[in-house]
Amino acid sequence: MKKELAKTYSPKELEDRLYATWVEKGYFTPQVDDGKPAFSIVIPPPNVTGQLHMGHALDETLQDILIRYKRMQGYSTLWLPGTDHAGIATQIKVEERLRVDEGLSRYDLGREKFLERVWGWKDTYESRITSQLKKLGASCDWTRQRFTMDEGCSKAVREVFVNLYDKGLIYRGHRIINWCPHCLTALSDAEVEYKDQPGFFWHIKYPIKGEDGYVEVATTRPETMFGDTAVAVNPDDEAMKHLIGKTLILPVVGREIPVIADDYVEIGFGTGCVKITPAHDPNDFLVGQRHDLEQIKVMNDDATMNAYAGKYNGMDRYACRKALVADLEAEGYLVKVVPHDHNVGVCYRCGTTVEPLTSDQWFVKMKPLAEPAIEAVENGSISFVPERFSKNYFNWMNNILDWCISRQLWWGHRIPAFYCDACGEMTVSKEDITVCPKCGAPVRQDSDVLDTWFSSALWPFSTMGWPENTAELEKYYPTNVLVTGYDIITFWVSRMIFSGLEHVGKKPFSTVFIHGLVRDAQGRKMSKSLGNGIDPLEIIDQYGADALRFALATGISPGNDMRFSDEKIEAARNFNNKIWNAARFVLMNLTVEDATLPDTADLALEDKWLLSKFNTLCKEVTVNLDNYELGVALAKLYDFLWDIFCDWYIEIAKPRLNDKGSKANETCLKVLAYTLSGTLKLLHPFMPFITEEIWQSLPHDGESIMIADYPAYTDALAFAEEEKKMEAVIAAIRAIRVRRNEMNVPPSRRAMLYIVSDADDIFNPSVTAHFEKLAYASGVSYGTAYEASDAVQIVTEKATVYIPLADMIDFEKELARLKNEKTKTEGEITRLEKKLSNEGFVAKAPAAVVEGEKAKLAAYRETLVKINEAIEKIK
RNA sequence: GGAAGCGUAGCUCAGCUGGUCAGAGCGCACGGUUCACAUCCGUGAGGUCAUGGGUUCGAGCCCCCUCGUUUCCACCA
Q1: Chain A, 144-183: which CBs lie within 7 Å of strand B?
Q2: pTM above 0.90, yes or no
């Protein structure tokens, strides 16, 4: 059982081995009928567009921490993994590859052949992502791995589409949508990003028919002029209302358009007259609907101008803009050009400026779906961590417009609508059909596919077998928590919520745990274009998965961005090494075969102190984890292991460890093994590999740390009294070190220590060894008095320590120092006395706080007595 | 235009429902070849917790103002 550990921790040789064992043993795969309470998470499926980046590593690490924690607590724990087909994004990548490698477009291949290529791509990247997750240590149930376009998910998509259609919540409509001229597809509102760009207002004259005058309009997109079907003014605008009803003549084009009244026009802004282009602007579209205006689409799908643009036909929209403006100027229609910065919508995938245009698309009617989804968060059925992100959610859901779900792509779920050219009937069907149910003629399926988020929205239940009422769905749905970044709340979280409520009748999850972005050391977003991305695999290769996980989880707080830096990963590596060496030390000394705790009666003061500290740690870490304060929990574990366990307990334990074969030796070893083993368990969710490797080397029950019980607080290990006593010892040791440092006494200079104290329950010969080791003593003696006056006096609350270093003492300075301490102590005393004589404080503060202050006062008074004695002594 | 976050030691950040909350890591200074670890040990310097008000017996922690910074949403042509 016991084996030698290498001097430094080298993760490489053990991570893959341990992971394989875990998988083989089936620890990641919960049994539906295990009778345990369920805890489940579905992974936010990474896109099959590429490989995992740091953001994924963070997301996955947080989920694995929660999953491993709950698994150890005895839950039937399912972490369901999978990937997303990522419609546009993946298609773009494959097209790009095709273009670069073979000089072909997707049209050259044709739909069938192209999709074969995409499936090939998907297989490659899906397995790459999967192996990366395994490298990270993610304890996903690989037997339940899913893909958004696999058979089951596709079935769910069909089911949902048809059901929504039957309920009248999906419709096909001719509406204005966001069009990407590069991807050649419609986009939803969420898929448009807005970027500030410098631009211009072109002020243009529109002559009034039958009069000499003209109307001046201002536009940022003059090329849409060909689609103008009216000019609007506000009916309450005194300066403009006289124009209502008149007819204008479009410059260059010569077409006649009316002046209409609509309060959409803001009085006093711009020229007060707005050109209305219903086919190319969302607001104008609405104005057009109100006034029954014609929609004139002036562009082709690739954003070149069409025949409506007259002589500009075939020109790119920007080339046209330039030429048109020049012509307007030449013909005297251009009044002025005013620089104007404005937000331009761009495609979230390719960055091309989006062109709003009218088109036939499929939409989901959102209002009826949004209402229950809003309600679920309002009434606390679903909660965000941190809570403030629910505002984002409400903001989006309360202002939601219908969701454009059709995409003019090939990669995705094909829309299950079938058209019959013979009778004109359209059939929406869960199953593929080839003939029209009405007339029997052949049908053709809609060539569009669904928005990739349409299938992602179903992920929490489509992956569990819905629409069948499977055992998985029964047990693990709703899931407990969804872990994701704040950048995806609108795209995904909101849509899962309304989808779950609508289709399953139950929310998809109870908690949405939001984390921030991983930024580079300078705080910049990691991006391909900046080249500042850090590959998680490289970090794992160099430092190990546990170090990466530690670096990602330490010092973070929910919803806040973090920076990833060399310092952080090095600190993580050092911590790994510290754990490793602490374990190595314990194992080197270990002669006991079990890690059960000895009788309380046999425990030394420091044992009880350590166990009590550990006990508190168990409680706090559990509370922190339950509250999603993972960073805080990890910091506490770090401090406990490094400071309490290593720097204090192990150092104090060394004399007993050298006393081989004794009872004290055995007790100490058991305490060491118990506490180390327990700490490893607490740490396991964060750092699965190193903890497992060490735990296996220690005396242990069970096959694996990952299925061991998570340590819990127990009254049996609460030793408050001993904690206090031990702290007095530590305070004395620290005080001695400080004093020696101040006096520049090198550690090699040993000196006798005379400890004078009334507290013989603390300062007695059983703690001698502690001082010898840690306070550089050549010997320690105890008593109630020390008569000689040749010593440095170190005053603490419970004891005064004398060190006879006569040759190094400047008694003048010594006196000054003691007087200084006296002044400080007196200051504290008066401050506390004041506070305690404040009626408001005593009356209103909690009793515990008041008691605490009283205890502090008493301690200071005790110390003051000792300082006075010390001063007397020097005099 | 609306909303939110951040502004705490030189740097990166923790600080839960107001009462040991003034902290950690790194960096820096001084001292250490103690038989687990120099990827280490000991000690120390550095902050009026952005500014100005307010609430309270008591405020980084609550409220308001201002400044700086980041982000999200909307978008006026």
Answers
A1: none
A2: yes
